[in-house]
Amino acid sequence: MTLETITERIHHAEIAAERAPGSVCLIAVSKIQPLERVESVLQLGHRIFGENRVQEAAGKWPDLQQRYGDCELHLLGPLQTNKARQAMELFDVIHSLDRPKLATTLARLAQDAGKCPGLFIQVNTGEEPQKAGIAPADVDRFVADCSGMDLSISGLMCIPPADEDASVHFTVLADMAARNGLTGLSMGMSDDFETAIAKGATHVRVGSAIFGTRTEG
Ligand SMILES: *Cc1c(COP(=O)(O)O)cnc(C)c1O
Predict the structure, then answer these.
(1) Quick one: which of 51, 61, 135, 153 is 20 to 30 A from 144 by CA?
(2) CA 127–ligand 1 middle distance (angstroms)
(3) pTM > 0.85: yes or no
(4) Angle between helices 166-179 and 139-148 (to 10 degrees)
């Protein structure tokens, strides 16, 4: 598939869901992809990208941005507190705020820097032990705690269990966001971004459908 196809499918999904055209942000997830694939998407004019690891992103994006101009970079993967400072310098948005200690660290760094990336709280909607994220029962309190630390939260993010109907998880996430007064919803990947848009996604994270299959590990 191509960027153009995905953009078109997003447009149709927006219309089908009676959402404003252009209201959904497409994050092209470039992790692990060969550089030439990333550059071909940059050459098409796309400027919003997602990465999973601080180190990997730091290795390629400063140079790519020098050559193609500023991009909006989103961190999607787990963030260690000792990489938080570097992440804040590199990324415009962090989607993986998943524990109180990270919130405390980000709040302190944001105070020092006088600015803060956009922040999504990752929710472990499937309550999977191996997956990061705030447990559903703790979300309301965590949102309040973040506000108490002066952290501005853009919305909620989830990665549904691979073997379950994603739409159920998208609905749960949308409800949690609504009752906490949060407007951002980071949900939907290559296989389910249209479903996510129907459920209110504001940010979809699409990798392999744009760039092709990743050869991981
Ligand atoms: C890799 C990844 C994606 C993109 O996955 P695809 O299935 O390739 O679209 C989206 N979100 C997160 C958090 C990821 O780690």
Answers:
(1) 51
(2) 19
(3) yes
(4) 40
